[in-house]
Amino acid sequence: MAWFPRAITSTCLFFGDNACRQLWAFKRDMPGRVIQWNLSWPDEVQDVGDSPLAAWAAEKRIYDELEAENAEPQAEPGAAPDTAG
Predict the structure, then answer these.
(1) Which residues does the annotated region (Disordered) include (predicted)?
(2) pTM for this entry
């Protein structure tokens, strides 16, 4: 059974996540900041920006970089198709 530490949940307003056990929130004692809390961290948080958009944009950059690393190379326009292999 999963449980959520009261020290975190009683001081935060959660509003989103990245679908990887990391939740974004506003924390009462950190006004003007957005924090990220991972379900595996008992009572630690990470400051991830000054707005939900900043937190989302930083996360999106990570996913965009991963996608670019895993993308198949694109053929040059007008190049003959690669038939080797």
Answers:
(1) 66-85
(2) 0.68
